[in-house]
Amino acid sequence: MESKAKLLGHPIHQQLIVFPLGLLASAVVFDLIAWGAANPGFMQAAFYMIGAGVVTGLLAAVFGLIDWLAIPSATRAKKIGAVHGIGNVVVVLLFAGSFLLRWSVPTNPPTIAFVCSYAGACLALVTGWLGGELVTRLGIGVDDRTDLNAPSSLSSPHGTGPAGTRMRTS
Fold it and tell me: How far apart are CA 87 and CA 25, in angstroms?
C-alpha cells in the first residue's frame, strides 16, 4: 500500500521519523554521558533534544495516522500499525513527561525524569521494529502490490521480503 501523504514522491511519515528517533535517542545518550562525566551541560542538551524530539514526534504521528487510516481493515498490517502508533504515542508521552519534569532544573533533573526517558527509549526500540515490519515486510507506504497479511519476519527465513519474495543479498 503506497503512502497517502507524500512529498516529492516519498512518504512524509518515513521522512519525518528520523528526527524524533535521532533526537530522543541522542538525549538518552547525552544523559548517560552527563552521568558518567558529571557534566550537567549534557543534561541541558538532552533537555532541548527531548523538547525537539517530542515536537517532531507529534508531527510524524500526524502523517503516520494518515497512512494508517488508509490501510484496509482486518489485515495484519492494520493491527501492527495500531500497536506501532499507540506505542509511539506512549513513547512521546514518556519523553514529554521527562521534559516537563526537567523544566525547572534542566541541568539537575529528578530521577523520575530519567526513568521516563529510559522507558520511552526501550519502548521506542519495539515500536521502531514494528515500523520496520510495516515498511519492509508488509510494504506499507511503499508498494500497492504487497501482501498486507504477510507473516512476521520473525517466522520466516531471512532474506525474504514482502509477500515472501526472495530479496537479493550482497
Answer: 16
Given a cut of 50, whether residue 33 has pLDDT beyond it is yes
Write the DSSP symbol of residue 144. T
In-domain check, residue 1: no
Is 150 within 8 Å of 164 (Cβ atoms)?
A: yes
Cell numbers representing residue 18 in the block: 528520523
Do the domain assignments include residue 126? yes
Q: What CATH number is given to the structural domain containing 147? A: 1.20.120
In a domain, 169, yes or no: no
Residue 170 included in any domain: no
**Angle value at C-alpha 140, between 56 and 21, nearest 5 degrees:** 25
Q: Is residue 155 within a helix (H) or strand (E), and if so which, with residue range?
A: none
Q: How many domains does the chain have?
A: 1
In the prediction, which pLDDT does 92 show? Answer: 98
In angstroms, what CA-CA distances link 141 with 6, 9, 14, 27?
9, 11, 8, 28
Rg (CA), the chain: 18
Could you tell me what percent of the chain has a pLDDT over 70?
A: 85
